[in-house]
Design brief:
With 588 residues, the protein is an alpha+beta fold. The chain has seven helices and 37 strands.
Length: 588
Amino acid sequence: MAENQEVPVADYGGSRTPQHWPMPVFVGVIGALYWLYALVSGYVEMPGMIRFMSRVLTLFVFLVAFLSWWLSRRQISRRDRLAGLLALLGFAVVAELLRDHSLDPISVVMIALPIVLTAWFFWVLLTRQLDARPRRLGLVAVLAVAWVSFVSIRANGLGGDQHFELHWRWTPTAEAQYLAARSAIVSPASIIATTQPLIAGPTDWPQFRGPNRDGVATDASIRVDWNAQPPKELWRHRIGPGWSSLIAVDDHLFTQEQRGDSEAVVCLNATSGQEIWSHLDTGRFEESQGGAGPRATPTYADGKLYSLSAMGILNCLDAATGQKIWTRDLRTENGAVLPMWGFASSPLVVDGLAVVYADGGEGRGLLSYHADSGQPGWKTSFGTDSYSSPQLVSVGGGDQIAMLSDAGVVGVSPKDGATLWTYPSADKSPRSVQPHRVDDGHMLIANGLDKGVTLVSLDHASTGWKTQPQWTSRGLKPSFNDFVVLNDAAYGLDANILSCIDLKTGERKWKSGRYGYGQVMLLAVQQMLLISTDDGEIVLVAADPAAHKEIARFKAIDGKTWNHVAVARGKLFIRNGQEIAAFDLAGK
């Protein structure tokens, strides 16, 4: 028989033998298992890295099974089998060139390839009775449609379950709608900025994760009978994309957002939500997993606002007016490398210095600048990668700056940046949560992605500082979701489930309640956890190590919500990459 001659199609799908499944059935089962796993994996509790690698592995098995089936089909000529592979590669190259900028090459594999293989497989099975020519042309058409469907979509980043949030490419993004609404207003700012310096009060929220960066609202007291009287919405409106959180000072609200090709530091009136001022720096950071926009949260101190853009621009602004006092470019001036997920270090202001984390190596880890002038201060190198922020802690009777990075955790002197102690880590995965001071001699630190937490003792002797692990626990495994500490317990989201561990032993007390990949804060006076879920709900849970007790919940905003919330002066402020809102928690 000539090489290109078609054989009778009655046996096209492969012949059954008593010892083996027909090859098409085997491939079909593998494909079905792949799709089943892809659909349910987001609901199965597992570490994020294992979830990603397992999805890659299942797709690889599907690909190998499919290629084995396609290349072994004697009922298809060798020329057609080779042409099919070339068509697959050709369409893949075209799709890579035409894909939306919100997707990356990995998405071509993870999104498009399983769709293409599935469509290809069913076309071959369903057209076994057709002649060779229409079968070939139809296969090319099916592959073209499958690839076109891929280039017709865009992504709004990944969810915490590592599934892309997909939209049709021609539909307007939330950012486009926001910018269009802004352009329709002649003057977005309708409130005149005050010329008086802002003064932080005892119930304000002046920096990332609150007054002490530990996620604790020390003086807040709120109504909790939300079923009878839900929190009253005060205002809401669109906002530009970004994962910056909110801070609140003296009835002013501050955050950062993306506006087209500019990163903006924004000041809003906390009572009405109206814009007071904005400061723009040219630059746009965007990547396929998190999307566009700034990552760090601005910091208020002594009438000034300090902000770090995702592109590495450090600003000092007058908090009342937005007037620029000084600015530094971490990349140009220090040779800092743009991190994979952008600069995310929220500035820490201590002892007249503004401290941020740039990147490691050659003294470029922690950088300090004089808060008034912006002149460079000390530099300390530790680690090469971090999405955490410097943390002021009181240890051994004095203040230190603790910084978590891929190298572990370090304590440095705020005065000169001298390294006081280190607790190294063998796990070099990036860190994005804060180290927590438990008491004067202990800190609780996260060990990397899905690796649990370790309680570290810090002892100060005449020979210097000594660090020693007390215990390591996988009862709480924070990735990019910070945790809080109350008395002898720590509470946080372990993947998407709330977990409580004993600080004395590291033993898990309980794990219950699915809240997505959101954030947790502590209302210390009422000993309650306020959880912002990753789909925009607000939930109250008792901070009780004995059991999980959900008290109330309400829907606040729509969309993927990873930003930390702020509670100040009886109000709750919440945002994500497309919406911002305020609610009255006091109920007065």
